[in-house]
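Hi, here's the filled form for the chain we discussed.

Project: internal
Contact: R.S.
Residues: 396
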Amino acid sequence: MPPKKADGELKALPIIGRFGTSLKIGIVGLPNVGKSTFFNVLTKSQAAAENFPFCTIDPNESRVPVPDERFDFLCDYHKPPSKIPAFLNVVDIAGLVKGAHAGQGLGNAFLSHISACDAIFHLTRAFEDDGIIHIEGSVDPVRDIEIIHEELRLKDEELIMPIIDKLEKVAVRGGDKKLKPEYDIMCRVKNWIIDEKKHVRFYPDWNDKEIDVLNKHLLLTSKPMIYLVNLSEKDYIRRKNKWLIKIKEWVDKYDPKALVIPFSGAIELKCQEMDEEEQTKYLEENKTQSALAKIIKTGFSSLQLEYFFTAGLDEVRAWTIKKGTKAPQAAGKIHTDFEKGFIMAEVMKFEDFKAEGCETAVKSAGKYRQQGRNYIVEDGDIIFFKFNTPQQSKKK
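And the returned structure, exactly as it came back:
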């Protein structure tokens, strides 16, 4: 249960990361593990996917529609001319190498690209292919994961020391009592990252004040990570690979809240080149399915994002909000006037709308709710906002 305020109102849990909804997830990994192929399939774009370490120098960025059967159902029901789904902003970041924190390869530029992202798809290679060189000379995804983790941690070491030196100068030697708590917190963060050699997100109990300080500095190791394991077509179809258990054991030990998602870049690329009928036949014959929808949805959720729907004959639209957003602020995503003049939110749950068949039936079943300004919007809510138009100030 989330903590409660004194008056009984639920208090939102603090979140490490940038505030807002225009957030990005970066694809990170060693060179030649399949990042650009994955990005191309994910976005149906054509980023260079040549077989050499630094073929992605400038980060490719794209908006990927979030697949959602609820959105599809509402579009089929209303048949509006305008259909706008939610989007996941994805960045393809060039391959990191050992020593990237010190500028090896194109390290510093790439690490700055990661800094601009809010979560990470950590892509690792678990397939053998003599035609695709591995920068470390052999396939070992656990070793590769550890290399990326250590490069991010070492970069955070570099970032932390100037911050602490500056705070020490002002808060300790300069006697600034206001900055002393921040200095103490950053010393604890330093101990965790440098002495314990662990990532920020591995510590389970950062409190509100500590998270406020962490959010000022947005360290690389604080970003949520999803582990994507790139398998061969054969291994993915048979659901067997000697590395999967070892990767899962490593993640469970060191990053226990993170998800591991196996996929096959080869299969996803093959499916993309087929028409819908051929793709369905291929997947059915091999008793398998694409992992893209799961990957996109998981990436979107890792950014602490969700969405509500507005739906009618003119438009069906998914509006992206932060998890825990209250009704007036959700209304403000549509227009600032909706937030300023908020009266109420009329809310249907998607499941109720689908089960009852129409809005009138939902109302008759007593499942159409009128919610006030303290209502926390839930993922998939179908909402109609009522509001007063703010009065224009009269000119004198």
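Let me know if anything looks off before we file it.
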